Amino acid sequence: MTVTLYKESSNITYYYSIHDQQQMLLGGYEFTAVWGPNLTKGRKKQYHFHTRREMTEKFRTLLNKRRDDGYRLLYTFSRESKNDILSTVISDIAR
Fold first, then answer.
1. What percent of the chain lies above the pLDDT cut of 90?
2. In CA terms, which of 5, 11, 19, 95 is 20 to 30 Å from 25?
């Protein structure tokens, strides 16, 4: 799953992208957030969780904060259908 948001400020486009890494090999869940004007050189942070519920709550919190900061949805991709983390959160962000 990937979600990429963007906002423009002072003629610079800023991006915020979250990549869901699915379940970790030794248990738990994680996703990676990358942000900045260039995602290949941007800042990066990995988040680790014991449960899928914790991951979903953090995912929702991060996206809501970015929406409140003026970010808008640029791109989204998910292999799963309505049962995935993306479908429950993105509909709020896309508005």
1. 40
2. 5
